[in-house]
Each structure stands twice: as structure tokens, then as C-alpha cells.
Amino acid sequence: MKTVLITGASSGIGAGLARSYADDGYRVIACGRDPARLEALHQHSPNITLRPFDITDENACRQALAGCSADVVILCAGTCEYLDQGAVDAGLVERVMRTNFLGPVNCLAALQPQLVAGNRVVLVSSMAHWLHFPRAEAYGASKAALTWFAETLRLDWEPKGIGVTVVSPGFVDTPLTQKNDFAMPGRVSVDEAVRAIRSGLAKEKNHIAFPAGFGLILRLLSGLPAFMQNALLRRMVRS
Length: 239
What we know:
This protein is of the alpha/beta class. About 45% of the residues lie in helices and about 15% in strands.
């Protein structure tokens, strides 16, 4: 029986992946900060075991993940906070960076002694950093850092036979995005996100991005000259 370890399994994409893999007979190690929500996952399937801890705590990661081996590691935990009209809030930026970037790094540092050839590490990034969206300074920077880290790590881990996949979702209907107070074009359900991720991983893809249509639009916009990009993005600035 293959083992899948998932962080951020308390809700959203992480919870959806945990249920999906468990239903298909995988052994799932579900990690998160909310013991009650994790317990609900355990009640869903006996294939799910729980490891509650906070990924932003390096020592907690080491203790919780010691001796924890998995064929696939999916680092899915994340958060999002927006700056208010460009007012730089150092505490806000630190919170987002600690969860979205340093948290996965903490997990990888704890897990790397157990990783062997044939394993795959999956880091859930976002399409958000493909364009410089107003208010998303902290979130976009954290996902850009995570993607850069993952792309470089892939090169260093290739000789070890360990795969690294970057997942770049658009808007997914989760408790996190439900807090947004703006239109979310191309939004997909958690089930659709799970299918896209599992399909890409089954093919051992290095990059998984969805939904395809919204991703294509962002790619085309990111290829425009800077003055054209900025002219479009300025329309999103709130006064």
C-alpha cells in the first residue's frame, strides 16, 4: 500500500486529496493544525492517520515527521492576507511568508532523511504570482518564493531520483477563497482541483496548472510588455 503525506489536510484541497487517496486504498498521513477537523478525516476512512502540528514551528515539524516515510509528500498548507491599499504591514507579510514558504521548507528539512529514489514531493503554489496583482504583495511573493525554491530543488534532487512537482491552481472554492471580496474568474471546486492534481501526479508531471483556460489568459497577459500589464492591473487598484 502506497503512502501519501499531506499537510494542510484540515480543509480545502488538502482535505479533498486526503479523502480521495484514502478512498482509493492509499495510506494517508493527514497533517494540520486543527485536531477536530483532522479527526473528521479519520472518521471518514481507517486509511487516514493523523499528525497534528503547526508547520511554521520548525521543532514541531521535526518531532511530528521524524521517521515518517511516504511515497508522495504533498505540501498543501497555505494562507492568504492582503495589504490594505498598499499599507505595508510587516506582521502580515511575516505571517504569510512563514506559512506559505517557510512552513513547507520546515517540512522538507524534517522529511528529507526519509526520502528515497522514487518518492515525489509536491508543493502547492498558485497562479497568483504570474502577474503583480494589487493587494497581493505578501501572498504573491510567498508563492513566487515557493515556486523558485521548488524549481531549484528539483535540479538538486534529480540525481537522487526524487521528483519535485509544482502545483499552480487558479481560484479554488475553499474556505480561504470564500473570504475574498472580489470576482474570481474560472473558480473551480475542490473536487475538480483534486482530479487535476491526481491526474498530473499519475503522469509524474513536474508542473500542474489549472484551470487551463484561466491559466492561459494569465500566461498571455504575463507575456505583454510591462506598460501594458501595468495599465490593466492599475484598474484593480482600490482607492
